[in-house]
Every structure is written in C-alpha cells, then in structure tokens.
Amino acid sequence: MDSALIGQSLVSGLGIGCVYGLIGIGFCVIYNASGIVNFAQGAFVMLGGMITHVLLVRGQLPYFAAIVLSVLVVALLGVVIERLVVRPLWKRNAPMFVMILATLAAQIVIERLTFLAVDDQPKTLPVFTDLPPIMVGGVAVNIQSLWIVAGSLAIVGLLALFFKGTRTGKAMRACAINREAAALQGIPVHGMLALAFGLSAGLGAIAGIMLTPTQYTAFNVGVPFAISGFIAAIIGGFGRPFGAFLGGLTLGVVQSVAILSFGAGLKTVVALSVLLLFLFVRPSGILGAAK
Amino acid sequence: MTSSPSTTLREAARAPGRVSLRGLAARAAPWLIAACVVGYALVVGGYAATVVAFALIYAIFVSGLNVFMGLTAQVSFGQSAFAAIGGYASAVLTTEYEWGLLPAMGAGLAGALAFAFVVGYPTLRLKGHYLSMATLAIGMITYEVAVQWDSVTQGYLGISGIPPLGIAGYEATSDRQILVVLSLCVVATVLAVARIRRSRVGRAFAGLAGSEEAARALGINVARYKLLSFLLSAGFGSLSGSLFVHVVGYVSPEVFSLHMVILSFTMLYVGGIGTIAGPVVGALVVSVLPETFRAFRDYQDLAYGAALILLLIFAPRGLAGLFTAIEDRPAKNGRSS
Residue B311: closest CA among chain A residues belongs to which residue? Predict the structure, then answer.
C-alpha cells in the first residue's frame, strides 16, 4: 500500500469524521439538557441535504438561501419533535428505553414521509465552490472536504463561545450539571430542552448539507449517520461535545483505513465493532464521561 | 434500572383468590379474539391465511422479546440477530447440506444461544442507552454480515427453495396445514412463557424488573438471571426465524432489518408489554389491521412508527391494559377491604 493512498484515505477520513463529530455533538447537546438520547438525530442529517435539494431544484432558490432556509426548517422540526414526541413522555417520567423507542419511531416516520414526499432516488447537491482539488504531496484534497473541515471547526468554535460566553449557553450547561438546581435558579428547563432539540437538529442539518455534495442523500441514509454520530459521542465520552468531535475524527479515520484494508462493504461492521469495543472495554470514552 | 413496566408487578401482585365472572371474561377475551382471528383464517384460507401465518410467527418472536423486556424489564433492540441466525441456519443447512428440518432448526437454536451467551456476557453489564445501543449494534452487525457474507447467505439475492415445514414424511404445504402447525407452536410458546413466569426463575425476573438493587439484596444473582432471560428470548427468536424461512421458502437479509425491530416493538406495545397474551394479540392486530385497508400498504412503516409513538404517549400498557382495567373494576366496590 503506497503512502499516497494512505494519505488519501486519511484525508477523506478526517472529512467524514468532522461530519460524524457534528452529529455526535448533536447527541450530546440534547443529552446534556435532558438525559435523553435522541435516536431521531439521523433524520435531521438526511433532511438537511434533502430539503436543500428540494429547495434548490424544485424551488429554484439560490444555493445559499436554500441552505439557510433548510437549516432553519430542520431546526424548527427539532423543536416540533420535542413538543409532540419527547415532552409528553418526559413529563410522565417515561422510562429511558421508551424514550429511545419513541425517537427511533419518529426517525422512521420522518424517513417514510420523506420517501412519500420526494422518492427513493439518491440525491446530490453541487459542491460549494467548483475548483479542482489541491495536490498536497501526491494526495488530492478536494475543496468540499476543506469546506467540511473549516465549517465544522467554525461551528465547534461558535458552540464553545455560545456555551461559555452567552447567558443561554451557560443556562444550558447549568441544566446539564443539575436540572433541579437549574430550575430552582429560575432557568426555564423545558425551554432549554426545546432549544437543545432545535440546536442539535440544526447541527445535524448543517452536517448533512456539507456532506451531501461528496456523497449523496436518500430517504434512508439517516440511521447509519445517527449510529456513526452516536459512536463518535461514545468514543469521546458521552455528554462531552468536544470529545464527540474528537471521537468523530477518530471514527472517520478508523473507518477509512478499514475501507482500505477490508473493502467498503464492511465499513458499517467496523464502525459498530469499534462501538462495541468501547462499550465493553471503556464505556466512558477517551475523555471520560461527563459528570 | 427503574424502567420496569408497571404491568409486571401488577400481574404478579394480583392475588389468585376470588375471580369474578367479569374478571374471567376479561382474562379470556384476548385469547378468544386471537382464536377467532386464527379460526377465520383457517376457514377462509388463501391470502388471509398467509397474513395470519406471518402474525403467528411474529407472535413467537415477540413472546421471546417480552420475556426479556416485559418480564425482566431489560432493553434489546437487537433480537432480530437471533432470528437471523436461526433463519439462516435453517435455510443454509436444509438447502446446501440437505439436513433434516429439525436438526437444522436445532443447530440454528444452538448457534443463536451460543451467540447470545457470548455477546450477552459483556453486553448485559451495560445499562440505559449504552445497553440499547450495544444491542442495536449487534442486530445491525448481524444484518450487515448477512448482506456481505455472499458465499453462505448469497447476500441481497437471498436463499430460495427452502423446504416446507414437515416432520417424518408429513409436510405442511397448504395454507391451512401451515396455520395449524404454527398455531400449535404459538400455543406451546405461550404455555412455556406462562410457565416460566410462574416459576422460581420468573419470580426472579419480576424481582429484577422491579429493582435490581432490591433483587440483589434478596440474594438473586442479577447477572445470571439477566443472561438467562436474554438466552430464553434469543431462543424464541431463533425458532421464529427458522419457522419463517420454512413457511416462506425464501430468506434474504431484509427480513431481519430494522423494520423487524420496529414492527416487533409495535406489536409488543399494542398487545401490552409484560403480559402473556399481549404479544399474541399484538402480533395479530398489527398484522391484520393494515391488511384490512389495502390502500394503507404503502404507508405501513409510517403507520407502525406513528402508532408506536401514539401508544407510547397515550396507552403505554396497550390492549392488555384495557382488559385489566375491565377486570379490575369490580375490585373497587367489592373485593377491596
């Protein structure tokens, strides 16, 4: 195996790893605000790409406007799911697996609705900037990967600012540390939950939009992405947003090396095996679980 | 874990003493409904028989799931893995190696139990969303392996020409014969689950479901009983997988996909988690209802998903909750001291 090939797969691994990281952060944001693991996370990723495609092709909107609108719509949908599915169960103190099952069912419902509303054909989006790949020492780095990496880093930076610097961000962290204490301080805990869903849906949508030009989107891509994002969150130590990002990068690289060694067919098996390995050996992840 | 469905304890706590006529009727109602549906299918035959046959196979699978999730209050999103092992073992051994039906089924069962034992040991130490995700991963790995392991499973193409159900020269080939065989299997399953629940093991499961700490304090070996419950559940899963491939005569990975997981959970919740009749009634209702509205068929997964969400929110105890509500009503004025 020559070094260029390995370098190539590392580059693509980092690109997809950023996306997994963003999805993983989405899991953590909701988990921290509520202790809920939202298995509908993959639906947001799928919808981000899908709605942008629909707005672009059927709506004839400019690309940038389509992206912004799509992120907003998906974020709103996140809030709607929180209101319709999660909050009734949360109020009743439903057991955790009921919550997981309900969000998984929500994922299936969104998937099927998308299938009915659009179709089952894979869709793609144009690359953000149509430039030839940059050659770095025999490794072709395509511009979309750079967009993904830069965009993800920018988002992670903005999130850090939001959680550390703003009142709302601090309130969300307070909920993560102790929900009852936060409520006693006058923090609207329910509102924070809705906000967490909106935020993490938006993150998922952005991840989906950045990724779609390099791959494709279809009504059923959500679940694999959700699982990869979840694995990223576990690797990083569940509940640690920046750990999740690191976890995503790790998973992306491991997966692309695995594709190189065993072929693309087994990439899901490899990812899931990494998950099981972490769950069995070190469930608190590389950084140690939050709290 | 505090996720025990209240049904387990309710059922266990109910004194076996005086039973009113109304109580008896309420208790018999789910079985009467099930018998009527199967009886109707037997008389009509054809397509109705096919639908009900699938429902009966699912009833066995969901009964197994219920042992682990209802009686023991654990979580597994990966029981489809064991159905896949049973199904593929039966399919491959009877077509490729020309084994008999029962030995192949037994081999599948042994394989599923061995797999459940190996993965169960590390997995069942996990709790909450870790357990959910690990079991989901096990189910999905099995699915992927079924897709990728071409030389044995023939990938997406699947395996066809699997011989029908039959023992010692007698084969169940017609719709009605298949229905009779499957009904017997379901009855055996139900009796087995009911027996398990009343046994020492079943009481240990109920204790575990109520509170792991309390169960441990009572001297129940929590890890061992969790594993036992998982193995029982896997066993029923494997048998249902074997039955499926023999009834249909064909198997492909799609049979054991996430769709199966969602469908079986819907059945479990429609019927009522933690009850004996629940899985059977749930499997029949969920299978038969969409068929009565033909136009519905494109929307099946959508309907299952939406129905599941509504049930979880508004009726977490399913149809069984309805029946116990009827049964409990006289207790309010008469029986309570």
Answer: A102
